[in-house]
Design goal:
By secondary structure, the chain is of the alpha/beta class. It has two domains: 79 residues, no CATH class; 240 residues, Alpha-Beta Barrel (TIM Barrel), CATH 3.20.20.70. It has twelve helices and nine strands. α12 links the parallel β7 and β8. The N terminus is likely disordered.
Length: 338
């Protein structure tokens, strides 16, 4: 049986999600000690930490295997020296999002929908993050600047869907989200509210009764898109909180990133699809990693991605096979890799 550190983390008293968010692991030494790892095996990259600090919730670490540097969850958060490699084609803004940023806090890349960078921070720093170099300083609007973003949406009646992203939008308080969603509710041509979040996986306590009620009572059709890459991430606590969401009121989807030595295997991804479906979550996208500077060691080729999807099609019913996609700058939609 896989040994992990659940027993090393105090769970006698339930904590509010804000308390948990204020007690993240940010020191590589602490992470090494908790996981009983040999520090000489994979020393952290100080340059990588300086550029993109280590940040991970204790519950996510609790799902990692003790003493295993190859643990798929650890690999997603460890600031490896491989991040220091300068590889041709891996750049700071591979999706050219700076060119789709008409007002602070808003990205308009695709017809019919816009994305709001609701908050600049997350509960976890995934080392493959495509926004690890993003200009959050210029995209963390004040309340007055949020009015600019809302006016932009009001002025374009072709916009039907608003995507809350970040950072992680669920790092915002229920009060902040209630105010923003209430303002979006009042824009008559909007029909859909989509929230992209890793929080239900890495900090499931964030799924408060208040938040669920807020989503369920909105005039807009709510879609919660989770970000889960491996079935090992679905702890009993994650399952407990996701079961609280009424799937008839809130559509739940999942998008994963295809990561070398994490989940680049049809058996691993098929197990994830089954585990998600048991929680009323449908697989949605399987992203090829974006070519972000510092992330080349996660890269998986389109050829391998297609092979994995073909193998999954032989193992699963069609509705459990995610679409393999790649985002390319300037394209009118994500490219489906058939």
């Amino acid at each position: 049986m896989t040994q992990n550190i659940v027993s090393l983390i105090d769970s006698d008293q339930p904590k509010k999600w804000q308390e948990i968010l204020s007690d993240l692991i940010t020191d590589p030494k602490e992470l090494v000690q908790l996981l009983q790892l040999d520090p000489s095996n994979q020393p952290p990259s100080l340059a990588a930490i300086d550029q993109f600090p280590l940040k991970v919730t204790r519950s996510f670490v609790a799902a990692m295997e003790l003493g295993n540097w190859q643990d798929p969850l650890l690999r997603q958060v460890w600031p490896s020296k491989l991040e220091e490699a300068e590889i041709s084609g891996f750049v700071s803004d591979p999706l050219m999002e700076a060119e789709a940023n008409p007002v602070p806090g808003l990205l308009h890349k695709y017809h019919g929908r816009v994305l709001l960078t609701t908050v600049p921070h997350c509960a976890i720093h995934c080392r493959y993050c495509f926004r690890r170099h993003f200009n959050y300083g210029g995209n963390t609007p004040s309340r007055l600047q949020w009015n600019q973003a809302l006016d932009y949406i009001r002025s374009d009646q072709s916009i039907e869907e608003v995507i809350l992203s970040g950072g992680d939008p669920l790092a915002a308080s229920d009060r902040q989200l209630a105010r923003l969603i209430g303002q979006l509710d009042e824009i008559p041509h909007l029909t859909t509210l989509r929230i992209h979040s890793r929080m239900p996986i890495v900090l499931p306590e964030r799924l408060t009764v208040e938040l669920i009620y807020l989503l369920e009572k909105s005039r807009l059709k709510p879609i919660l898109v989770l970000h889960c890459n491996h079935a090992q991430e679905i702890s009993p606590s994650v399952a407990h909180y996701l079961h609280k969401i009424d799937a008839n009121r809130v559509k739940m989807l999942n998008q994963s990133v295809l990561l070398a030595e994490v989940n680049d295997n049809s058996t691993i991804l098929s197990k994830l699809s089954r585990a998600l479906f048991a929680l009323n979550v449908l697989p949605y996208y399987l992203h090829l990693p974006d070519r972000v500077a510092g992330t080349a060691h996660f890269a998986v080729t389109p050829i391998k991605g297609r092979e994995i999807i073909q193998e999954m099609e032989n193992q699963l019913p069609g509705y459990l096979v995610p679409q393999l996609v790649q985002e390319e700058p300037g394209k009118p939609a994500k490219s489906r890799m058939r």
